[in-house]
Amino acid sequence: MSQSLQVTKKQQHQQEEKQQRQYESSYYLSTKSSVSQKSFSTFKSTSHRLKKSVKTEKGQEVVKLSPLPKRAKRTYLAMDTDKEVIGYVIPVFRANHEVVRGLMEAQEEDVTEEGINYVAMRNLFVREAREAMEVKVEKKTRSTHIRESAERLELCRTMEEWSEFRKKMNPDSLMHLPEFIVKPRGQTVWEGKTVKLHCTVAGWPKPRIAWYKNNVLIDAKAHPDKYTAESNYNMHSLEIKNCDFFDTAQYRASVLNVKGEASSTATIVVKRFQEGEEAGPLDPKPHGFCPEHGVTFETTIIDKFEVAFGREGETLSLGCTVIIYPTVKKYQPEVVWYRNSVPLKPSKWVHTIWTGDRAILTLNHLNKEDEGMYTLRVNTKSGFDSYSAYVFVRDAEVELEGVPVAPLDVHCHDANKDYVVVTWKQPAVEGSSSILGYYIDRCEVGTHHWAQCNDVPVKYARFPVTGLVEGRSYVFRVRALNKAGVSRPSRVSEAVVAMDPSDRARLRAGPSAPWTGMIKFTEEDPTVGVIPGEPTDVVVTEATKSYVVLAWKPPVQRGHEGVMYYIEKCISGSDTWQRVNTSTPVKSPRFALFDLAEGKSYNFRVRCCNSAGVGEPSVPTGETTVGDKLDLPSAPGNPVATRNTATSVVVSWAASKEVIQLVGYYIECSVVGTDVWMPCNNKPVKQTRFVCHGLTTGANYVFRVKAVNAAGYSQNSSDSDAVVVQAAISVPGKPTGITLVEAVRDYMVLSWSAPADNGGADVRGYFVDYRTVKGDVVGKWHEMNHQALTTTSYKAENLKENVLYQFQVRAMNMAGVSRASLPSAALECKEWTITVPGRPVGLHVLEVRDTSVVVLWEPPAFDGRSPVNGYYLDIKEASAGEKGWKAVHEKANKMKYMKVTGLKAGTSYVFHVRAQNLAGVGKPSAVLGPVLAQTRPGTKEIYVDVDDDGVISMVFECSEMSEGSEFIWSKNYKAITDTSRLTVVTQGGKSRAIFNSPSLEDLGTFSCEVTNTEGISSSYTLTEEGLRRLLDLSHEHKFPVIPFKNEMSMELLEKGRVRFWTEVEKWTSDCQVEYVFNDVIITQGQKYTMNFDKSTGIIEMFMDSLEVTDEGTFTFNLVDGKAKGTTSLVLIGDEFRELQKKSEFERAEWVRKQGPHFVEYLDFAVTPECDVLLKCKIGNVRAETEIIWLKDSIEIAEEDEDAKKIEMKDSELTFNIGKISKHDAGIYEVFLRDERGKDKSTFNLTDAGYQAVMNELFRVIANSSSDIQILSTEHGITLYSTVTYHHEDLRVGWLQKDAKIAASERVKSGVTGEQLWLKINEPTEKDKGKYTIDIFDGKDGVKRVFDLSGKAWEEAFEEFQRLKAAAIAERNRARVVGGLPDVVAIQEGKSLNLTGNVWGEPVPEVWWVKNDKELQSDDRYKLKFEHGKFASITIAAVTTTDSGKYALMVKNKYGTEAGEFTVSVYNPEDEENKEEKKD
């Protein structure tokens, strides 16, 4: 331009005022504005050229168009339809303070509905405020024109937003989910202060709010002294007064309306002033008084879960029983579960249950991530208690031997628009070879398709994944690879969204400030269309031999449309830059470069780009050498293994000296001599001490450790020294239950219970301390005994009368002295005057099982006025109150022990004992327990053994022996000191108590206890009956008898041979047999054959035949070492003679079978078709063998009719009599003969034989009968049954209601063909009931029953009535019965007279028709009906017109019938003419 353009300040102010007025009129009063919507739409389609007002040198004002820009942008100028500038419109969010304030005042006056307030608040006031900026234009240059064009486009967008805003003002669209405008913020306060949580909520309808503390609803009205909840104009607050340590929790605000629910959480941390070391979050704290409920809650955790082992994919449950005392109605403690001191939240993997007295944690589909230390913490108003145990998760079985197990702990980091870093931890087991690398898979959320992210396995446990789609969510998993194959995939990671971190932070943070009624706006620089600047701070964040990761900061100048990036690399020593991502720029300020040459050095730089072009490059990173920067960790120090429990060992080691980014350590163990290493943990631990559980008691193990970081595994440490898995010895637990059992003027007798845990070694003694008590003042503790006490009672002497004392006791074993017990109550030293006994002492339990336990005690030190004569044992469940005590027995027990039975498995019990004398029952002892009724895994019982020498002994085994453990045998729970009755032999973990001379003196209960264990014990009660049984068994072992499975037996063989045999049950190869007959030893020869099969134990002796001299006793004598056995068989008298006859018969049979013979003799059979067959089976026949049939001694010749009935098939002869009758009776014979011999078979088919055949026939017939069927007829009802065949001699009877039916005219029975029927004519109600047909079957009879009543009777009777009515109708129906011909041929002129016979009752109506037309009686047709039977028609002088079809019609109420005939009238002359024509 030749002249400069200026705008005066006055003109500028006038223009701004005009713009503001125009903004109000066009934006808020759009319906009245001169700027119509049409004008704005015109702006979009017309050219954006602008008029400018300028002054020339002469002072004249002219109008000149500016040049058309290349990229015309939206302007803030408002134009009318003629494209004249009429104002300047300030776009939304770019106004100054005055404009916005005026906007809000106008809105408060016009908008009153809550829904509109919400929409305005959400669309206008939640966004981050910016400072206002005044627009000053000094020149209308091209850049100014571009800015104005952009503002113009922005104005169009603003008007569209305003249109959408007006749509949302419709009340029908106002309902929406609640949302937090301002979320509650976490705070940290000092104890005793007051804290207040605030939040602002929007939603329509107006949502309701509820506050929760650790997911427990807060009832502010019920606790006004603690909480105050307020809600005003969608602003809500919760005030927590006088905060204490237990107010430290996670608080949640939950808002709800009909459209849904939203929630937000905040954490309150309450700090307290405390001297010394502060307790940890899981350390138990003393219970304090709860003023809210007026009690002090005491928490006891029992039935604790132990160290647990699971396997991947399984479900594992942990649980504890929690006892809160006292019980307060509607009060429940807060139960929290932790893993490695981190609270667990319910998820698809974790489920928690609190039943009111039991806390249960269920881990679904275990994975190695679930391994760790699990803690149950129970919070009450008085404090909290906790319990912890470790959970180990073993690897699932691999599908292919040698492949590695799955990696674990897959997490996503540094997520961006198209990039995320995936990390994981290496597994404990590499497989048969070292891990070569890992494959990373990704899956888009909502799909089931897994895509592999890397083609080449990566060695590092960290991998950048690129190529993600912005806005989509992904999950990842990892697989390990070695030479054997690929492992199973790991558990999938948490879902991660590919988006800008700033957007993610803004979504998580929510609105930054509540609505205050004022918003600040600024106008941004017009950077649209400007090429972005260069990125800054480009650095290499990761460098490995597989990839290099770059990171940088976006440029300051980047415009509204965002920027993308190109990455360039340059090999050191050259000036050539090569673009890496040539095809697609990346959106994230992170990028991973692959395929770089290992060992070479590179420089990297980044360029920004947008639609305007590619910007200048960033400053290069400097030389970066491709290679692993993270080294493998060094090997850990030498591990030291020390004993811990019977199944665990503590392993400690020195940390790796050279390690960066340590992930943790893996510990492995191996049984000495096996060289098989097994992982002790499947999740790496960072501490240098670990307890290895699940080891085999008594086994010898060595251990080693290896460190792991992202680069991989270190070398294994050196092996530890071998250690035997046994329980370590520690100091004992504290004694309990200090009780005063006797008091005199200057001394008191104390008693206490031994510690529940002896530390793995016998308690060697106790030390007692005392102190004086005066009011609330207590003195210092003083020792009472300098030498250890060996009993659990002590006589404290040299005390002062009427002085109060407190006592405490310490236990001692070889490891040291325990901590002091709880002080006793204040006890006064004064002489007792009571008469009843004192408290029993020394209560303890043995033989704890699921349903029983043995309780033992010692007598009280003070007997009272008379000696103790009995005891009472009381029991109650540990969770029950004081009223739950009940007696175990009714009568006093004189023993100092008792076995309690009938317990519930898994339930804890407590016990106490009361002593009794003649004066009464004393006070109960100190409470023993709680004792869990549960059989210890691996518990064995005492069993009785009788060895081969007959020695009786009791055996007890223990697999959990520790150093110093001993077997202690007792009788009736008193240690056995007399070795004359029992000899105890112990070897390793097995002890045997041998009876020296078993007798009645040994009856009683024998028990065995193993010291230095957790109460392993068992007992065996020897009764008189049991002793007698053991003595018998001992005698058998001393003098053994060879047992026989079968005593000697005899059987006849072919040819009449006789076999004597027996079978022994136990024998050796040295067993010998002696064969004896009548006390004479017999040997093998011509008459006797002997055999002893030592593989089966069968002894045999054979004789060819029995003679008279063979009558007597046969005996087998067996000798096998010192064992003997005898079995005999006596054959004398009638038994011998009968056997001899059978032998001769068998020999004769053998001779007979040498020729043709009958295998089965002639017999009969009846076929299902009721044909009678005579049959026999023959054997050893030849073609020349003759077969002859005879009946009544007359041979049946081939030409006889009966010869056709004979058939032979497969050595079976049959004679088919067919349907038998009396003429078939007779004697049938069959002869076989040839040169080898002959045989004969006879069957007598007369008398008894005939009757037997008939009975079998009747049986077949009777069984073939069908169920009774029913048939209705016009006469009545018929019951019938069908048989295959009926014989005239078959007896059939019918019964009604179990009474025989007498034949009558109305009720008849009979047979038609194969149908047996009973006809009931004209049935009545009396004929209803149960009908039975009894068919004789040769013995009793076969009965078929039918119940003719109910529906069956109704249907049959109804059908009978219908058929009867139909029959009557058929009989009385009107019909023509005769007299009419079919065709009548008559000569013309003749008279026709026809008469038809008619029948019907009542008499039918009669009429005649011709060709379907009724005839009337007249001169031509004479119609008559006489006597109700005869109908006639007479036609005088018929003509040809009378030809046609006629019918006599009859009809009555039962029906109609027609007697049809045809009349043909002919003329003779016409007939002759026809004949002539034919000729």
Tell me what the structure shows.
The protein has 11 helices and 104 strands. By secondary structure, the chain is mainly beta. The strands form 26 sheets. Strands 49, 50, 51, 53, 54 and 55 form a 6-stranded antiparallel sheet that branches. A 5-stranded mixed sheet has the order 6-13-12-8-9, with no helix packed on it. Strands 15-22-21-17-18 form a 5-stranded mixed sheet, with no helix packed on it. Helix 2 packs across helix 5. The relative contact order is 0.03.
Briefly characterize the structure.
The chain is mainly beta and 1479 residues long.
Keyphrases for this structure?
1479 residues, mainly beta, six-stranded antiparallel beta sheet, five-stranded mixed beta sheet, 11 helices, 12% helix, extended, disordered N terminus
Count of helical stretches: 11
Helix content: 10-25%
Report the span from N to C terminus: 140 Å
Low-confidence stretches: 1-138, 275-279, 509-527
Q: Give me the count of strands.
A: 104
Strand content: 35-45%
Radius of gyration of CA atoms, rounded to a whole number: 58 Å
Structural class, from secondary structure content?
mainly beta
What best-fitting shape do the alpha-carbon axes yield?
extended
Q: Give a quick account of the main beta sheet: strands, pairing sense, barrel closure.
A: 6 strands, antiparallel
> What do the pLDDT scores average to?
82
Topology, element by element:
Blueprint (H helix, E strand, L loop, with lengths): L8 H20 L8 H9 L5 E5 L5 E5 L11 E3 L5 E4 L8 H14 L3 H12 L16 H27 L7 E7 L4 E4 L4 E10 L3 E6 L2 E2 L9 E6 L2 E6 L8 E9 L2 E12 L26 E5 L5 E4 L4 E10 L8 E6 L2 E2 L6 E5 L3 E6 L8 E9 L2 E12 L13 E6 L5 E7 L11 E8 L5 E3 L9 E5 L6 E10 L2 E2 L9 E2 L3 H9 L26 E8 L3 E7 L10 E8 L6 E2 L10 E5 L6 E10 L2 E5 L6 E2 L14 E6 L2 E5 L9 E10 L6 E2 L9 E4 L7 E10 L2 E2 L9 E2 L11 E8 L4 E6 L11 E10 L2 E2 L3 E2 L9 E4 L7 E10 L2 E2 L9 E2 L12 E6 L5 E7 L11 E8 L8 E2 L9 E5 L6 E10 L2 E2 L6 E5 L10 E4 L5 E6 L9 E5 L2 E2 L6 E6 L2 E6 L8 E7 L6 E6 L1 H15 L5 E9 L5 E7 ...
Parallel strand pairs: 6-13, 15-22, 97-104
Antiparallel strand pairs: 1-2, 3-4, 5-7, 7-11, 8-9, 8-12, 10-11, 12-13, 14-16, 16-20, 17-18, 17-21, 19-20, 21-22, 23-24, 24-27, 25-26, 25-28, 28-29, 28-30, 31-32, 32-35, 33-34, 33-36, 36-37, 36-38, 39-40, 40-43, 41-42, 41-44, 44-45, 44-46, 47-48, 48-52, 49-50, 49-51, 49-53, 53-54, 53-55, 56-57, ...
